[in-house]
Amino acid sequence: AQKVTQAQTEISVVEKEDVTLDCVYETRDTTYYLFWYKQPPSGELVFLIRRNSFDEQNEISGRYSWNFQKSTSSFNFTITASQVVDSAVYFCALSEAYNQGGKLIFGQGTELSVKP
Amino acid sequence: EAGVAQSPRYKIIEKRQSVAFWCNPISGHATLYWYQQILGQGPKLLIQFQNNGVVDDSQLPKDRFSAERLKGVDSTLKIQPAKLEDSAVYLCASSFELAETQYFGPGTRLLVL
Question: Is the pLDDT of residue A101 over 90?
């Protein structure tokens, strides 16, 4: 069965600190996709990244970086030099493309609070 | 490019009443999803359409929920009759094709009293 676990329910940091959000997933498929979405207080889910199971290269986009490790079934997300605007709930999600038609299985979310 | 549109943004109803939500996906997106997000949880898929056909409705409570996408573009999700536990945010998402990246609308916040 597919499952996504975000063990950190809430994280609070001070502006300019680095912060890592953890994501662990379970799947029996060899072909799958992993995602991160941001949900600010307005409620809309904002797409951040999509990574397929065959691409284990880490990715950096500005202050954001992602570490994908198949050996530990983890897809962690790091924000460098956090800012108040980063305050939001962040969701990790899994999609088993061929078996499930692409539906997303979400984790419980991690609420990040960045204080000035 | 316009994003996914949803209306209404907020709705308050009493239990046993009916309610309908509307979604207009990104132009050209064949796949449309409805998710339910209960407070403090991640979204859960209710139903998925590919054009005007249903791909997955295994998690849709069919005794009270229904959805349609008649012309393969707009979609409507209906709840009749509503229960207290239906209070949630209903999110619509679309993707160009199956298993492609999903883009979400602003959601409809439903409160059932």
Answer: no
